[in-house]
DNA sequence: ATGAAAGCGCTAACAG
DNA sequence: CTGTTAGCGCTTTCAT
């Protein structure tokens, strides 16, 4: 490991000077030619800062702590974490992610991360829920991910559920469907409200109109299948927007039993949580992919902007809001969704 | 942040003494009563070591670097990472996991982790493959996870594919199946060889005998479905062992089309990769869950044992090899599998 | 414009 | 047994 001392010796200057140069703090303080020489020697020797030594003085480590639960059991997590990590890496940060089982070890893990000197925290839930933020996090730079603080004190990154549903439903409308059903979730989830509203809005706006009779909010297993089955027979829908791919599966099953082919006799758009169908059958239903990666990515940007007290735009990372794919394609396609960025109260 | 200095002042001793006590290196070196006093003051003040400051002297950080690819896209990763992290946390280590896209950023991420001073690395692939270990990892304590080094130079933790298949097939035999098919994977994967062998062995041992005609190695989508369909009609199997749940899905689909009920007319055991079925339908097929968590857990233990140059048994962690569930249960049940621990060549 | 010196929190060699 | 001293690699006054 090359140290500043070595560079100093090689160049014939003091460590202080090297430090100044390596941190870009020369500028009327170090003669340009000597600065250049330092840089060159550093280059040749392959100098890398030692973040630990630096942190001892500066009290910041460029490490970020990612706290989440359930990571082990949900496939969603990967995308968020990957996105967060990518952005961190680009911004010169290191992300340490820790998943907890319950409140018990949560505080322990947070304490451990604090000991290691992380500069800020993500607090993530897998699938948007109203969430109590741990006390121990409140005095730190903090961003919520896929979670909602009841009092709105902390910035959060959440998928735009309304737009997801609005887009998906519009897709069905433009595909020519006239009786569009919604197979939703009967659990109390934030996503459910937004999606139902988006579905509703899209229908109203198109002039097709909304009817409660076309909505089935279900849970799972047999009862869910029966409810969808009943919807099938009662309303004979020609299009379905499904809360997730488990729900899409019920539609798939009902269609199969009635000899109907998805993509031909009926159209289905499902929000993709598990990417099951893509791996098992020829693509027959259109899937809308949740913007997990983007959420993670933006969470990092927001968090770093708080830590460094800079505006988001200063970070110079591409504001990628990918364009929507054409609506007439019967094949699966990703829809990237806008992110809602709540106000940040921290000073 | 409480420092040793403060404890020293409060107690009226020197920092050295405090350091000795806090590291348990008193023992004939510090008078018991003064050691006790130090400990008490530390307790009251809520002292926590500063790992960064410590690492500056000791050159070890108690941080572990977890390198993997594909984490974002596979649900398997979570279990491994959770297991690894749990063990790390119990052993007083912090795990930093980083997932890479390709070789390009892999070396960069490794370099970053080295800068941060990690003590050792995991190198993980999602689903066992023969793997080239990056040069930059070779001079570090290293454990492969779900990956195989062609030259067997590094310790690795892999699922015992043979036993997985052997157990699953035995389960079908004991359930009374007489024509047991294997729906495998036609890609060249290590798991495939082991599973086919385990299936084979279980059949031979039971006296039922093995027939190639009952084996269908498939890829996915339509062709896979057709192949399974053909197997169905040609051999009329009454039991199926499936490489993963995508393959089990083809069997499910074929059964449904023929009016057969799984768990009644035919029996199916599938290796569970996505936990799809549990979320969609009443449990009808038996799933074997891969021991991802355990692999991660043991990987950490192995890695730490290398780093600290201790034997695995010294680590004092429970050697949990959970007992197999009863074989006559028609409901899904986890089968925990033994782990293969390859020899470690590092000195 | 540059360097010397102090110190971040901790460990370890060496005195006493 | 305990304290003094030095130093890990870096940043940051403060002299020069």
Describe the structure in your own words.
The structure is a homodimer of 347-residue chains. With 347 residues, chain A is α/β, with parallel strands linked by helices. In chain A, the strands form 2 sheets. Chain A has a 6-stranded mixed beta sheet with strand order 2-1-3-4-5-11, sandwiched between helices. Chain A folds into 3 domains: 45 residues, no CATH class; 136 residues, 3-Layer(aba) Sandwich (Rossmann fold), CATH 3.40.50; 130 residues, Response regulator (Rossmann fold, 3-Layer(aba) Sandwich), CATH 3.40.50. The C terminus of chain A is likely disordered. In chain A, 42% of the residues lie in helices and 18% in strands. At the A-B interface, helix 4, helix 5, strand 2, helix 6 and helix 9 of A face helix 4, helix 5, strand 2, helix 6 and helix 9 of B. Chain A binds a DNA duplex (16 and 16 nucleotides) through helix 2 and helix 4.
């Amino acid at each position: 490991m090359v140290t500043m001392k070595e560079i100093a010796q090689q160049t014939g200057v003091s460590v202080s000077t090297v430090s100044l140069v390596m941190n870009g703090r020369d500028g009327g303080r170090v003669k340009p030619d000597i600065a250049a020489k330092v840089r060159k020697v550093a280059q040749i020797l392959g100098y890398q800062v030692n973040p630990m030594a630096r942190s001892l003085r500066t009290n910041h480590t460029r490490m970020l702590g990612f706290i989440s639960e359930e990571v082990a059991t949900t496939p969603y997590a990967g995308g968020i974490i990957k996105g967060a990590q990518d952005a961190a890496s680009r911004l010169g940060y290191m992300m340490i992610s820790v998943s907890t089982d319950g409140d018990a070890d949560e505080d322990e893990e947070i304490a451990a991360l604090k000991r290691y000197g992380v500069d800020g925290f993500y607090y993530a839930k897998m699938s948007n829920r109203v969430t109590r933020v741990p006390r121990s996090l409140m005095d730190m730079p903090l961003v919520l991910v896929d979670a909602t603080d009841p009092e709105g004190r902390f910035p959060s990154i959440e998928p735009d559920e309304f737009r997801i549903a609005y887009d998906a439903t519009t897709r069905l409308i433009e595909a020519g469907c006239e009786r569009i059903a919604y197979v939703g979730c009967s659990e109390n989830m934030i996503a459910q409200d937004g999606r139902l509203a988006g579905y509703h809005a899209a229908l109203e706006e198109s002039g097709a109109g909304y009817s409660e009779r076309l909505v089935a909010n279900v849970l799972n297993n047999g009862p869910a299948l029966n409810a969808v089955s009943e919807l099938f027979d009662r309303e004979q829908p020609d299009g379905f927007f499904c809360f997730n791919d488990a729900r899409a599966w019920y539609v798939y099953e009902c269609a199969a039993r009635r000899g109907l082919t998805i993509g031909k006799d009926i159209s289905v758009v499902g929000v993709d949580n598990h990417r099951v169908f893509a791996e098992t059958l020829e693509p027959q239903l259109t899937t809308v992919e949740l913007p997990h990666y983007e959420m993670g990515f933006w969470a990092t940007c927001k968090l770093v902007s708080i830590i460094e007290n800079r505006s988001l735009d200063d970070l110079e990372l591409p504001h990628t809001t990918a364009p929507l794919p054409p609506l007439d394609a019967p094949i699966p396609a990703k829809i990237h969704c806008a992110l809602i960025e709540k106000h940040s109260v921290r000073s």
